[in-house]
Fold each of these.
Amino acid sequence: MKVGIIGASGYGGLELIRFLHNHPEVEQITLFTSSEEGTIFSQKYSHLLNILDQPLQRIENDRLEQFDVVFSSAPAGVASQLLPPLVGKGPKLIDLSGDFRLKDLALYEEWYKKEPAPASAVAESVYGLTEWNKAAIAKAQLIANPGCYPTAVLLSLLPLLKENLIDPSQLIIDAKSGVSGAGNQPNQMTHFSETNENTAIYKLNQHQHIPEIEQAFSLFAQDAPPITFSTHLVPMTRGILATSYATVAEGMTEEDLVNCLEETYADKPFVRIIRETNKFGTNQVYGSNYCDIHVKVDPRTNRATIVSVIDNLVKGAAGQAIQNMNVQFNLDETAGLAHVPAFI
Amino acid sequence: MKVGIIGASGYGGLELIRFLHNHPEVEQITLFTSSEEGTIFSQKYSHLLNILDQPLQRIENDRLEQFDVVFSSAPAGVASQLLPPLVGKGPKLIDLSGDFRLKDLALYEEWYKKEPAPASAVAESVYGLTEWNKAAIAKAQLIANPGCYPTAVLLSLLPLLKENLIDPSQLIIDAKSGVSGAGNQPNQMTHFSETNENTAIYKLNQHQHIPEIEQAFSLFAQDAPPITFSTHLVPMTRGILATSYATVAEGMTEEDLVNCLEETYADKPFVRIIRETNKFGTNQVYGSNYCDIHVKVDPRTNRATIVSVIDNLVKGAAGQAIQNMNVQFNLDETAGLAHVPAFI
Amino acid sequence: MKVGIIGASGYGGLELIRFLHNHPEVEQITLFTSSEEGTIFSQKYSHLLNILDQPLQRIENDRLEQFDVVFSSAPAGVASQLLPPLVGKGPKLIDLSGDFRLKDLALYEEWYKKEPAPASAVAESVYGLTEWNKAAIAKAQLIANPGCYPTAVLLSLLPLLKENLIDPSQLIIDAKSGVSGAGNQPNQMTHFSETNENTAIYKLNQHQHIPEIEQAFSLFAQDAPPITFSTHLVPMTRGILATSYATVAEGMTEEDLVNCLEETYADKPFVRIIRETNKFGTNQVYGSNYCDIHVKVDPRTNRATIVSVIDNLVKGAAGQAIQNMNVQFNLDETAGLAHVPAFI
Amino acid sequence: MKVGIIGASGYGGLELIRFLHNHPEVEQITLFTSSEEGTIFSQKYSHLLNILDQPLQRIENDRLEQFDVVFSSAPAGVASQLLPPLVGKGPKLIDLSGDFRLKDLALYEEWYKKEPAPASAVAESVYGLTEWNKAAIAKAQLIANPGCYPTAVLLSLLPLLKENLIDPSQLIIDAKSGVSGAGNQPNQMTHFSETNENTAIYKLNQHQHIPEIEQAFSLFAQDAPPITFSTHLVPMTRGILATSYATVAEGMTEEDLVNCLEETYADKPFVRIIRETNKFGTNQVYGSNYCDIHVKVDPRTNRATIVSVIDNLVKGAAGQAIQNMNVQFNLDETAGLAHVPAFI
């Protein structure tokens, strides 16, 4: 397979390279850029010396059409312009931005404050939450790869919502993320001295992943009232931990919830249910494509606390994108992705 | 004033020393220990060289009775034994452990899994949430200094509960803490390589600060149903950020909530209400005795998100303890505590 | 005393505010800016709410002349323009940039790649290494406050060079710094995701503090050959640890070196010699104006390893600046600076 | 191949598992323990759930003899007891401790303060610095895998010493390490709150890697006088950066040094020479088996600064161990080790 990557300089792009380089079916990786044409990639990123020493190419549709698959790691508002001309052409397309995720264009405009992508391309796109949409992904040309937060939230909540084990009307989701989710552009919010030794809440009630989560609830489980979802920045590079709170449905128990999760994911290689643990954290999936889930019901309140962890750059971005590529090409879902979590 | 500190080697003790050393009314600080008698303190902690070079003293009630005030930074289960013999004697007593906080001894046993302190001493003790209990603190001999999490949670929620601005029946509190809250004893949970680059949930539904928060709701605001309260460890040393979620009471608005908080704390030097912010984090109170609070109501859900930040070792421990000492001795509440937050 | 601060938005400025706010002789602090006139400072930096709520003022020489002392935390290349008009006028001037440190203007141009300050102002300036230049500082109007690295290096090496206890011809200095030394402007080098979990060497053989150290050797100890000095960025916010290596002079012992250091600083409140230690690190001076020094001689090599630690923002910048102000105004050297190191 | 791992619970063991799990020639991994027999490994380390769910086995020589290769990640002082009975038996043996590295047993006792391993086993062992000892490794049964610091130091200095490009008599090596090098046993030195936001020097002139480096100089390059080598702990988990300082030999230039390094490692897949860089750090080898080297000569001093970076747990431990296994079994040196550095 020949793979093209648009926007390789971003962190999504770097992670695509990290995994695709050792993917058994990938023969060739070519990098495209809108602004750094000719730059030798391993001079910009010396960790890739001897691994990817090619110059960045100018984005040209003629060239891109010749690849088997094109990943875009371009930012929201840019992918919406770059990918539509390739729809209906040869390559499979996998977009890591939010530009093709929201089917309701008005919602996109409201939350992203940008021009939406052309309606036809959005209509064409398939939401790439692999474990929940595999059949559609297998047939899709254009994949809208899920956001990092939605991946962590949806994998843990969808089974419980679908089986009516929790009350959708009182859902509170409190998410914590490492800083790499903010990308590679330096700004005050990601400046080391103001991020280190600091835990902060940001974009309160304004995060663009809110409508994405709500849309997926409708699509895969049930319509639910608007959710409360808040996002925090913690002083680490990788990892998302999402803590969700919901009232347990009448008559249901912790065991019912755990069983439902275990059954849903029994044959899914990248989702693991952790039954007992004293300390459940992001390091147990570090660097890997796993999503781990833990759930407890408090008998005092009859409320469930559902916790999930992912590596935001892997299962929350590049890893899931490759998992989707594997599905599109009918490969083993784990091809190139069987990295063991680093833990330390 | 002559001050004695029991358990000075712990982080609470070190912070007491940091602030008391420059307190305008403190003449002398003497350190007591149960196991390190004779150790020159600045040999154990060389950051205190030339500042506190005295040997640690053996704990003897005769000696302790001669101080104006005795702080105990001994752990829970130890303070309960050490302080009761001093009740009714000369010194004011301020305990930083959880041993005198819960008035219901059965609750103490249930959550702490330890023998409670003698009932008479517990009955005598006054809960030291300075902004809410000043009159009682002023007259008390024995102060049960609040826990770090409860301080952050109570200061932000009590006004809203007391004025019935939020619904107490759907309260969810998600707290994030730096690692210093776990104290100075090394263990796997605080081992650098397993804590760095890791955000984790721990003691889910089991944290001993739950009954403390519930008791304070009853005492200062209203009886409320059991709460959902969960605690997370983030890779930083200092700071707590507590994110609380509650349904806004019928007819109330964000402005009502903000006004209530501003009015409650108008004349309180250490509580600040932050109206507008993009990123609200623990570094804005770092190293100081402030508690900052921010609140937003989401019109989509009519739910309030109430966020508060403290330095867990200062307002959440030693700083509030000294603030209580100031109240007990009728000093300016800010004496020795007017440190500017470090931010970086 | 009335104090003006130019460039208060930088980290040097924030630290000046942190210490000056509680300085016993400072009545009023006024902030000046070249680009943010009218901004309410506590809206930009909410950690200063209720502490410093004033608007930033435009830089005007007429106004600045009326202060008792003006600190400049403007960057190199800017201070050189702003301060000279105030030379010979009323206020004492303390500059935290490198613009007035190098007496040889050609050297400034070579290492800073900028236009030097006017020769007359440079000639007028006094190097503000308090422990070594107190008499001149007391009489000076314009202080060139030392760089962070030079402070750590000079305090530890000057006594040994002056007394000929080490060989100046084989001096190697390896310095490690937290990221705050790079200031508050976000860039790739200080971007959290590329700085966290990374130790890096930078500006190898090019750091502008090299000529500053060499000039001070000549001024306070002896002429020495060019030094090898290299700088590393470690993933923490505050702190410098400088490890210096030198051959011990013929016939001298570790005891001689330690004694020399202890004697030199016997009456200096902010320099401490640590004799025995297993682990000697920056956290023992965190947040304080101390410089701690430790020295060992290896009998296998007859080489001394001399280690010093400072908080780069305090003794390496704002703290030493205030110490110099204290000297200029004949106050106790420790006024406003007696903060105990935080350690944790 | 069937692989046994003794001491799998340590960080060296965890990293062996991380790489061996995807090694193309490894069929089976079995874990051995001296104290946790029967523990399901993925219950102790939940990041290995579904990856390695087997119980830990008791160490029995009969069983161990049946493996193709046995790695020992047991600590120094323990490996010396466990491995000798297997010498001369079936399995290849690769020891990650320091117990078989020093050929001079008296030196071992002096620096490790422990009983040395039996002389015959030490005599048998081959030092596993792959790039420098490949022929001997290929024939060896027992490999003494190099220490983390020595690996970083030796790969960068051996070529220059061997070719007489630097003066061995004035060698100063200043090394910085992440905390994982201290292993998984919690203690005060690795306690998060005292390690975070702290850079410290430790074991000054006492580090047991000093004689290992000196021995390898003699073995692979030339006898050299005792070195100055010091070690620092920086607040990150993984990574070593070693900065070495040496006077350049008469008539030699920076270009000579760089060329020598490039030629030495031209056909070595895991050593890369970085010619130009502004910032050279450990993150460029993070999680990988690479050692990157950068060298500059300062014309002012004619001194070379030679900098190398490795991931201490990979090239500095488990990665190099597997590289040695590959050599022993005549596999491609990179088998199972072609991980791309993570960078972020």
Note: Chain A touches chain D at residues 11, 14, 17-18, 21-22, 45-51, 180, 184, 196-197, 237-238, 269, 272, 274, 277, 280, 283-287, 292, 313, 338-344 (CB under 8 Å).
Amino acid sequence: MQTLNLAEKLSQFKAHWSPHQIAIVDDMQVLLAKIKDEFVWHKHDDEDELFQVLKGTLIMRFRESEQIVKEGEIIVVPKGVEHCPTTKDGKEVHILLFEKLTTKHTGDVQAELTKTQYPKL
Amino acid sequence: MQTLNLAEKLSQFKAHWSPHQIAIVDDMQVLLAKIKDEFVWHKHDDEDELFQVLKGTLIMRFRESEQIVKEGEIIVVPKGVEHCPTTKDGKEVHILLFEKLTTKHTGDVQAELTKTQYPKL
């Protein structure tokens, strides 16, 4: 029952597109990530995925549209929906993710950026 | 796949200890609440509960200790652990909760403050 300081946890790593696990809530996990430029188009067939922007602006691309998600905003990507998280102008963005422990980093896609394990902070 | 602005959602209600549901992620829900003074001692036998402080300082009391949770910090209360969320000096605190759809507001306790349904925003 420790208090988790998000800024302090974020200060412990630098790599982009490398989620770090800070907590587990039942069968879900809280991840922190620093992201920059474009990720990988993918979907999660069986899991929803929540993104909360802690710093900067996330552009969540979908096949037919995109959503701009600013600091203090949340977006939930429903299961089965292809998405590609992106940032603009080479800016680093800090996000919190809330998702099942079973959710794979790049879903049904295997890519150079794919992580199969998340370090714990 | 709408973007949810936490400040805008919080501006839509005033009542204390009245969680409002802003999103569902699989079998869990995201709630926003404004809290002030002391809640009710209770526990959730089967569900963990995540609290994220968006504004102010939450004092999470446990039977043998307490944790101070400031803006930008998170605490996860494990299932089965008695807790009593509190604020100090009559200050209003804004929190985000992440918990199962089955989690009862005051767990195993029925109290005057107990809500059996959460309005959706």
Note: The longest helix of chain B spans residues 6-10.
Amino acid sequence: MRFGINFFPTLGPSDRSAAQYYDESLRLTELADELGFDHVKTVEHYFFRYGGYSPDPVTFLAAAAARTRRLRLVTGAAIPAFTHPVKLAAKLAMLDNISRGRLDVGFGRAFLPDEFEAFQVPLDESRDRFDENVEAIRRLWTEQDLVWEGRFHRFGPVTLLPRPYQRPHPPILVATAFTPESGERAGRNGYGVLLVPSISSREHVQEMLRVYRAGRAEGGHDPQGGQVHMSYTLSVAEDGDRAREAGRRQIEHYTASLVEAVESWGRARSSAYAGYERLAEKVRKADYRQQLAENKVLAGTPEEVAAQLAEVREWFGDVTVSLQVNSGTATYREAEQSLRLFAEHVLPRLGAAGSPVGS
Amino acid sequence: MRFGINFFPTLGPSDRSAAQYYDESLRLTELADELGFDHVKTVEHYFFRYGGYSPDPVTFLAAAAARTRRLRLVTGAAIPAFTHPVKLAAKLAMLDNISRGRLDVGFGRAFLPDEFEAFQVPLDESRDRFDENVEAIRRLWTEQDLVWEGRFHRFGPVTLLPRPYQRPHPPILVATAFTPESGERAGRNGYGVLLVPSISSREHVQEMLRVYRAGRAEGGHDPQGGQVHMSYTLSVAEDGDRAREAGRRQIEHYTASLVEAVESWGRARSSAYAGYERLAEKVRKADYRQQLAENKVLAGTPEEVAAQLAEVREWFGDVTVSLQVNSGTATYREAEQSLRLFAEHVLPRLGAAGSPVGS
């Protein structure tokens, strides 16, 4: 297993200023680099407390790159439908060079109707735009004098500058929350996947993994290879009850912000997003004790969290885990403590179950 | 006068790797911060050696923000026509917060037909798109629940996150290379201007300044206020001939890359860009001795460069000057030497003519 940190802010100006949020997140990023964690990841969302402090993951990760030496930088996920492929390919290539090859690119389809409306992108085109733009970006990275004649974009012959640092291109991961076909397709293309175990049953995640590995085999890739990323809210303290209470506040804050953001699914419908209209209802009735028991949040003493992770590993294998310590309600001190305790006391307890962070 | 540095790369992979270019530029940025310079600025261009290593100024400036404490960060210029206003407003607001209010936003219309073609934006719509998008961005920064019903974009009600750090919003500057009306309009709106004295006669720059100040007065702003930015290639050495030779190589490299990039004006025509089709011819016949004599490039001993700047100040007033030391042919050592000599030996010679850098 590898462990990194994930920044998924669920904040608005009345919770914490954006300047304070970035400052604390960059300090935690430096700390994670020092402690030997594997990566730093952040999201792309707009307008709402749910991710809205992170509308451009590349901007945050460029600052993170300048303050770290070893951490990999992960977009989790950048949304190709909302940025022209030339622009997105180019700025990711800049980040890949600025960081000397430390970039992993997660791409997502997005799912909030209000975001699609603002960018005037029809929800029903989401999958086609995703496929076209990811492929255009991959080819901009790898080909000279590219001529692109797609349904949504036409350009060329052009040669993208700068060329990516990593050859043939930075590793690509695809966010696949619910839809097995997305996982299967990611596997066939040899891409990694970003899964969201906190909003799916263990069985569903296992099914996604099975389909993903089958896709890899079908595409001629090692079925056991490929990066599999999962994000978890983390709260560790020597006092387990305190850690769980802090974890509860984090989760409730996250849930409230998600409910706020998915409210527009009450009026939007799209065959490309079957079932999303029930998302608000689904997250609203989540029970914290049950989430803890099902390892959808990691909270407790170092020993308890290590036991949770041993189980996660049994279920899903040697995945890459991104820890959320700074989403909304945790103070900087709590977030720092969680990271330090994790590095110093959780990992050693994982023993054979977990390789050292960053290895 | 204030002095900063400008990064306008004229490089491709056969000249210098992108990773090396960013690394050297970020080291020079840190040095400029230490030496007390006022700002760091970079450009937005695509595909060609002419600026192509800088397709996203915000990505570079975010890394620069993380490695500096005092420098202001200037987009010189970001192109609103090539990025959705929600996206551009949001990432600029991120940078403003990450840097705790050190951002100045220069916006430009762009002028290379190949760039417009790639983004499928008609050249003839350039001015209307510029006006609409800059205004949309300004209102996204300053208003809640904004409803935007423009010709090119419709969205809202939305409230942008994050809110900018600077209130009401980061200072706006407008790139106005040739067209007096652009300068006049920038003045009326209370914006600053980015002028390009290297490709205009002194008289034309003076006319631009006159029109700009008249526009400010008309808009109810202090006519002598407003940021006026100008970029100059700089080459200083104790040996004046060596400095001039290095300056010549820089300028010739810059000219060659501009000729390459504007070649497409040979086939493109647009009433919105009258005269641009003769641009390649115009830059090709520039004479270095004349450019030096007309202070379009700053090169020589510290004493000689100080004399040039005293003249520039006489012509144009207390403008903000961005020095280009790292565009193409200069080695890192030469660029560093130019910056150090400038700070230590040029500025003191300016005496009453120049305030200390960064003041």
Note: The mean pLDDT of chain B is 93.
Amino acid sequence: MEKRTEIENLGEFGLIDKLTEKTQKYQDSTIKGIGDDAAVIDSGDYFTLVSTDMLVEGIHFDMMYTPLRHLGYKSIIVNLSDIYAMNGEAKQVTVSIAVSSRFSVEALEEIYAGIHKACELYKVDLVGGDTTSSTSGLIISVTAMGTVAKDEIVYRSGGKENDLLVVSGNLGGAYMGLQVLEREKEVYKDNPNMQPQLEGVDYILERQLKPEARKDIVHHLSELGIMPTSMIDISDGLASEVKHLCKAGGLGAEIYDEKLPIDQETYDVARDFNLDPSTCALNGGEDYELLFSISQNDYDKIKDSKHMTVVGHYTDKNAGVNVVDRNGQSIPMEAQGWTHF
Amino acid sequence: MEKRTEIENLGEFGLIDKLTEKTQKYQDSTIKGIGDDAAVIDSGDYFTLVSTDMLVEGIHFDMMYTPLRHLGYKSIIVNLSDIYAMNGEAKQVTVSIAVSSRFSVEALEEIYAGIHKACELYKVDLVGGDTTSSTSGLIISVTAMGTVAKDEIVYRSGGKENDLLVVSGNLGGAYMGLQVLEREKEVYKDNPNMQPQLEGVDYILERQLKPEARKDIVHHLSELGIMPTSMIDISDGLASEVKHLCKAGGLGAEIYDEKLPIDQETYDVARDFNLDPSTCALNGGEDYELLFSISQNDYDKIKDSKHMTVVGHYTDKNAGVNVVDRNGQSIPMEAQGWTHF
């Protein structure tokens, strides 16, 4: 009998490792393949960056509460975020969409309205794609391309012990937005006449449904004369991304619970849900903020920034990856990330 | 009541036109967006080419007769074909896959074995991708990247009146392979104990299940000192592709029925199915051959080639796109192409 291993037994990252371990390199222009936010291709005077992501109905989004326009917008944003996480400038995208016949032309136009809006705001060009039918549901696959000067590229690796770990914006909002939407969906399913309770949670809903990518942070760091030593975008939750950086750089890390930037609305709603706001900030995904490390010498340049918060620092690899709680206790960090399988 | 237009009423090309008509250009490096086989990006010393395609279970392939390894192989080939159709060299690919839990890790490894094989034979690097779950079925989205010297790029436009229209290889085989597979599927559904009748049709089955991209033709033309004036790959059937070239170039065309290159096996099986072999060659898709135009001055260089066949020539736009039958009658060409919607 043929061997059958369930995908869920490996998890997303284990699966990717297994499937791509036999990858060979044939082209000199391939500088970096799988294993960072974007692939890196030598284009002579600079590097070209390429990143791709697939959004699947029922897995990444729920049509019951996801406006199509926002979905189109978000599908672009999540890919641009990967280009910015390499310290690059996003320039072009391709979009492939598979839809079943339950979607109308007008529905697709709504998705594209969001795509065009994101392209306009981030100044990227929609240059290609594919449109096809599916037997069920909606799938959007986006590939983003960008460029970065060869001496300005920032990888996941490259951090050094004692470098400061910094996050842009705030964390946990997208996750709490999702919790609110899921709660209202359940209420609606029980009684379709109930009006959804979405007052006072605009910010976290927008974090979930219409996130932004931190192009501004890349520019801001450049203006401040700061070159991050390592960088990643926060799509799967801070804890998961810190672990990625530590693995890539051969380092450990300490993250300070009390430093985690959490918006008041996120905090309040987490409390309403009887959730620990810090856990939401550590493990909630889809914030699309940037996590990066800087030399301690650069601390003065960012310490007054409203857009960036120092949340910890790299340590020796043997110290592991830890969270220091409000009592000063260092405990191993659990990265649950987003497991789709 | 909201307006609802069914996608099938527009067709694939009409839909793409409608969805992308509002596309803006923000980046100077974007040379050519939607509307050719690949997007063209200025990379300084040369152009970067980008093409993307999505294969959806139940639409583009049937798991009942598609070996997973071949599916992985084909998913790469169909994208490389688009790069070669720009006279370029394919260099990198990204692969995103969504699968439902009915697929095992071993099944995915089979798909990747095919992907790796195609990468090895065509010397392209797998540099990124995404692996996620789907609620049903298997979806593969591939993006291929390549390069081409700026003075060697070939667009769909660029042909001139009287330029010769040339196809590589032969046509209709992939379509007849599909007919055989569909026939055997029906037989199997009626009686699962019946053995499939696949003897003597190896060639057309391979054309359907494991096609090749014509990298060799691009090299061959270069060696012969021929620069095509226009080019496209034949994914949707010759008739459909001739129409694309004519539309892009503002030209008409005459295709000679008796010149269509049809393999003997394709011919024989078409006859078995009571199909006109020429119709299969004109409208059968998925051959992934190249269709291109050359100056009449280059005719002597290719007239003895086993790999290329002159099938017609460009005419004035007002003459339309026609097929000249074996009686010398010129009749308007119908391009049914592949309509997935």
Note: Chain A has a mean pLDDT of 94.
